[in-house]
Amino acid sequence: MEDDRVSILEAQLAQAKMIAEDSDKKYEEVARKLVMMEQDLERAEERAEHSDSKIVELEEELRVVGNNLKSLEVSEEKATQREETFEEQVKALSNQLKEAEARAEFAERSVQKLQKEVDRLEDDLVTEKEKNKLL
């Protein structure tokens, strides 16, 4: 009976050793997976940190671009207003030029008429002087 008991205990011991070895293997596997997951987590945190800084950088760039866009829109609006003002000035100056050309043309015709009148009067004067000489 003692031998049976020893055999049973030896069998239980062998089984316990097998269970312990299996548990050790499972522990080592879990520990290895844990190390890998911790490394993955560290890399993921580094990527997240890099992404966060990139987000901040891009947000700043977006703000600057937005401000530049607003400035360009204001500049475009001012340029459009200046263009409209210049077009109005060109139109007004064109009208003034037409009026001045019309006045100049009228003045030239008046000068020609007056010159003809002066020429006629000078001719009359010469004629009258000759008549006076004859008297």
UniProtKB/TrEMBL annotation:
It comes from the Eukaryota. The keyword Coiled coil applies. Belongs to the tropomyosin family. Keywords: Coiled coil. Residues 27-131 form a coiled coil. SUPFAM superfamilies: Tropomyosin. It holds the Pfam family Tropomyosin. This is Tropomyosin.
